[in-house]
Amino acid sequence: EHKRIIEMLAKLSTSSCEDNRVAAQSVLSSVLREFPDSFTLVVDDILRLLSDAQTSHAQLKGALYMLINGKRQALLLQQDWEIAAKV
Questions:
Q1: Which PANTHER family match (predicted)?
Q2: How far is residue 39's CA from residue 17's CA, in Å, rounded to a whole number?
Q3: What is the pTM of this model?
Q4: How far is the CA of 60 from the CAs of 29, 67, 72, 77, in angstroms?
């Protein structure tokens, strides 16, 4: 159940609606602080958005924010070499 919630938050974090995107990013950041390894559940979906030519500007903005938001929860700052190799 937690996995599904985290995946839904990641999807909302790349929403075309800015209010939804910002709110979901905030909640997802809080979840990642509490459950630091949970980032592995969403990284593939985020990377998929970055490589898809059909990704909207809003989705791209959300995906990039989650990767490099400048906070400790930024996915690029997670110390997981397998994930780092994917990025």
A1: PROTEASOME ACTIVATOR COMPLEX SUBUNIT 4
A2: 23
A3: 0.74
A4: 18, 11, 20, 19
Q: How far is CA 21 from CA 42, 48, 61, 79, in A?
A: 15, 18, 10, 25
> What sign has the CA pseudo-torsion 86, 48, 54, 11?
negative
Q: 8-30: string of b/e by CB count within 10 Å (b at 16+)?
A: ebbebbbbeeeeebeebbeebbe
**What SS3 state is found at 14?**
coil
Q: In total, how many domains does the chain have?
A: 1
Handedness of CA 83, 20, 16, 26 (dihedral sign): negative
Domain that holds residue 21: 2-86
Of residues 75, 79, 54, 55, the one with CA closest to residue 65: 75
Q: Which residue has the tokens 């905030």?
A: 26
Rg, the chain, Cα only: 12
